[in-house]
Amino acid sequence: MSEFLNGCRAIVGAANVLTDAADLERYLTDWRRRYTGKALAVVRPADTNEVATIVRLCNQHRVPLVPQGGNTGLVLGSVPDESGNAIVLSLSRMNRIRDTDTINNTMTVEAGCILEQVQNAAAEAGRLFPLSLAAEGSCTIGGNLATNAGGTAVLRYGNARDLCLGLEVVTAQGEVWSGLRGLRKDNTGYDLRNLFIGAEGTLGVITAAVLKLYPQPKAQLTALAAMQSPQDALRLLSIAQERCGATLTGFELMSDFCLRLVTKHFSQMRLPFPQSYPQYVLMELSDSESENHANDMLEGLVTEALEQGIIEDAAIASSIAQSKALWNLREHIPLAQAEEGKNIKHDVSVPISRIGEFIAVTDVQLAQAFPGCRMVTFGHLGDGNLHYNVSPPENASPDAFIASQRDINRVVHDSVHSFGGSISAEHGLGALKREEVRAYKSEVELGLMRTLKQALDPLNIMNPGKVL
């Protein structure tokens, strides 16, 4: 492999071909630090031409490659396996914002741009890029698109797929497809853009994208509502959509146990209520008219929900600081769960109307099969996406509980399937769910996916072992 590595050095420079173990570690270990793969090297190209040249070299030497952005994924999609045969193709140096068009409301960015960088650049131009994730300070646009990331604003703006108009992609043969067209309408053949979005780097390497921008809202208001059940949360969602329409941009469900974990492990955080309730919903309105208009709308919604007995109490943020404090409760749930110890995560989606029933049925199934397990249930109720996580019983051995992961997954995923849902809503399949998904997709669907993979990547060098 010395000839191959020397070829890489000639393309990107010796300083950008990392082979020392100390330099490789952060690229080889997954976000949750539960798995570490192996690689020949980490190669860090500076532009699309260097990516294409590296891919052609990989073809010549039959070396697999694993595209990587911020390495914040949760399904082992951005780390190599343990064979040590692949390189990690890190796009972190490709972080330029190439163009901002405020008339067309688009921004062209390279794949290595950090999501927060794009959000800030849009704000500086007087625009909004609405994709928002807990990992936005470290995840990259390329990774967001490769996994079709969701986040907290999907209800209003859609997934990453919906926020992208065009792509630049290096194919598995090392050719460059330049599809950076900022068009809302383009009916000229197969939709290649959507083929690569969500493919987790298994069909090609996304190197740049044209993203949609939106006008900055005149006001953003946040409220936390307390209620008895997920069914009440669905009733609240229904009247919120009727009253607020597209102004409703966030609708997050959180159980009492989620927030008790947050206040337990982050003592500076407090709930704004004198007592606890079984369920909470965090709502956000983004209004293009005025703050007074948004405030009247939100207060009217809360009043109606209280009068109908849908909610028990509500706190409306009256300042940016209070709004941030409410969102911090939501954003700290994964951190608090990590502080509590090992857990088994599920990123699932079911039809919105059946979420309450799904939670009730699956909670009972898990309690019967794994007595004492604790459910950490939260997520984007407005688009049907739940993070339905399972923590071990108190004082139980975490390692023994994690050893039951396959059985727990089967209970949860079988239930998701019975409700007409998906076992991956926004995290992707990666290597972690690659085999699991075979139980829930038909052979026709899997066969079509294999046909696409074989046609576009016949040598199987693009992120092998992921998705399929």
From TrEMBL:
SUPFAM superfamilies: FAD-binding/transporter-associated domain-like, FAD-linked oxidases, C-terminal domain. The keyword Flavoprotein applies. Keywords: FAD, Flavoprotein. Residues 35-216 form the FAD-binding PCMH-type domain. Gene3D superfamilies: 3.30.465.10, 3.30.70.2190, 3.30.70.2740, Uridine Diphospho-n-acetylenolpyruvylglucosamine Reductase, domain 2, Vanillyl-alcohol Oxidase, Chain A, domain 4. GO terms for biological process: respiratory electron transport chain. This is FAD-binding oxidoreductase. Pfam families: FAD-oxidase_C, FAD_binding_4. The keyword Secreted does not apply. Transmembrane segments: none annotated. GO terms for molecular function: catalytic activity; FAD binding. Its cofactor is FAD. InterPro entries: FAD-bd_oxidored_4_C, FAD-bd_PCMH, FAD-bd_PCMH-like_sf, FAD-bd_PCMH_sub1, FAD-bd_PCMH_sub2, FAD-linked_Oxase-like_C, FAD-oxidored/transferase_4, Oxid_FAD_bind_N. Belongs to the FAD-binding oxidoreductase/transferase type 4 family.
